[in-house]
Amino acid sequence: MSETRRARPKGTQDFLPPDSARLQHVENLFRHLAERYGYQAIVTPTFEHTEVFVKSSGEGSDIVTKEMYSFKDRGDRDLTLRPEGTPGVVRAVLENRLRLPCRLYYVGPFFRYCRPQKGRFREFYQVGVEALGEASPLVDAEIICFGDDFFQSLGITDCTTRVNSIGCRECRPAHRESLRKFLLERKERLCADCQARLERNPLRVFDCKVETCRLTVQDAPVPRQYLCKACERHHDQVLSALSRRGLLHEANDRLVRGLDYYNRTTFEYVSASLGAQDSLGGGGRYDYLVGDFGGPDTPAVGLAIGLERTMLAAPALPEPQRRHLAFVVWLTPAELRAAEDVADRLRAAGVPAQIDYDSAKVKGQFKSADATRAACCVVIGPDELAKGVYSLKDLVTGEQREIPSDTVTEEVRALFRD
Ligand code: HAM
After folding, report:
1. What mean pLDDT comes out for the span 326-339?
2. Which of 236, 358, 365, 371 has the most crowded Cβ, counting Cβ within 10 A?
3. Strands 102-111 and 78-81
């Protein structure tokens, strides 16, 4: 058999139990929190027409130039596996003429062709929210607090929230020009990518991880110095709302983020425990994107959070000693029917139950029960059937006793300790 058939593609992961349950737990926590802030779920395709991303994430962005999984389908269409969620959501809102304002959240896999390392994958899971049609700086602040709320609920305490403003179409050209001049004078210190970015989007240089580029931009003019009155007021209101809400944050003049659609507010959550890939999540305002898609002028703001990094940064959840699962054991084929009945009765009452249909021997069934880490076994033999009872075996203590058959749900539940 070929090796590739037995190995997952580079940069992908298998989430195995119990990690798969942890991933679901984190996703569900996000869903509940998003709903608490008024967001509703949206599910968009995992691939879109390539143009959807090229025109939004930005033709000069790393995502578009280096990281997209793009392909032609059999109908010669240019398609791309979604590298991020925002463009697809905007496309869906416009295509389906959703009423604005609307608050949407999503959970799912995303794809970027990058160099895999700790916290960086080619297929990764993101959760995100997008508030379309809301202009107030208080929404920016609320979303920033929402992200922090999510991290707090997972016990992540070493998270720093960085906030900046990169201005608008009014004030950006002046900054861009002065930045371009500054960088042009130091062109030879920039990496080849940044030299190429210089004319098209010099702001990208702030985002470069190459040491010489980072040193070069240390004294470069930053967007903050060029904000127009309206952007400055917006930014001040975001920062004061964050302080009012008690959210510790760090104003960071160089935070521009790697996507082209942002204006005004940009923010990022970083964790000291993550190493090089330290960004847990981020987002910002994108008041022009809906218009760029041909829609009406619509202010918008959102964020996305990477789940692999979140799980790396979160303290491990205490693992339950045993699963909340009752294993129903039958002694002879004559009790199989009764075993099915009690398993269905438990399930209908919300108690997980499982049967090993294949092992004719009781010993084999007990072995299976142990392998699943079930909390208990409900045992049915000819005696139990005749007396209208079950034998309930606690798999933690090993204790076994008879219980009236009509109390099985409560008795099993009482054995689910944690
Ligand atoms: P982003 O900063 O590109 O923003 O991604 C958000 C988060 O996704 C990152 O902070 C990181 O945690 C995670 N992430 C990104 N790439 C990878 C990867 N290769 N492996 C693992 N995790 C990764 C966006 O995607 C924007 N759409 C956010 C947004 C929403 N802005 C407005 N609305």
Report:
1. 97
2. 365
3. unpaired
Which three-class secondary structure state does DSSP give residue 253? coil
164 near 251, Cβ under 8 Å? yes
221 lines ligand 1 (CB under 6 A): no
Three-state DSSP class for 240?
Answer: helix
| Among 342, 347, 274, CA closest to 305 | 274
Every domain of the chain with CATH number 3.40.50.800 lies at 323-417
Per-residue CA distances from 299 to 140, 302, 316, 388 (Å): 11, 11, 38, 66
The CB of 130 under 6 Å from ligand 1? The reply is: yes
Residue 203 CB partners (closer than 8 Å, separation 6+)? 166, 176, 179, 223, 256
308 lines ligand 1 (CB under 6 A): yes
Ligand 1 centroid from CA 408, angstroms: 47
Helix (H) or strand (E) holding 354: strand 353-355
Q: Whole-prediction pTM value? A: 0.94
| Residue range(s) in the chain whose domain bears CATH number 3.30.930.10 | 3-171+227-313
Over range 77-97, report the average pLDDT.
Answer: 98
| CATH topology for the 3-171+227-313 domain | BirA Bifunctional Protein; domain 2 (3.30.930)
Return phi, psi of residue 160, to 5°. Answer: -105, 135
Q: Kindly tell me if the per-residue pLDDT of 313 is higher than 90.
A: yes
pLDDT in tens, 156-197: 999 999 999 999 999 999 999 999 999 999 999 999 989 988
Contacts of 95 (CB under 8 A, 6+ apart): none
Domain covering 323-417, topology: Rossmann fold (3.40.50)
* Cis amide leading into 18 (omega within 30): yes
Q: Which residues of 106-121 are buried (b: 16+ CB within 10 A; e: fewer)?
A: bbeebbbbbeeeebbb
Burial of 357 (0-12, 13-18, 19+ CB in 10 A): exposed
DSSP letters of 367-416?
HHHHHHTEEEEEEE-HHHHHHTEEEEEETTT--EEEEEGGGHHHHHHHH-
Evaluate: CB of 137 within 6 angstroms of ligand 1.
no
| pLDDT more than 70, % of the chain | 99
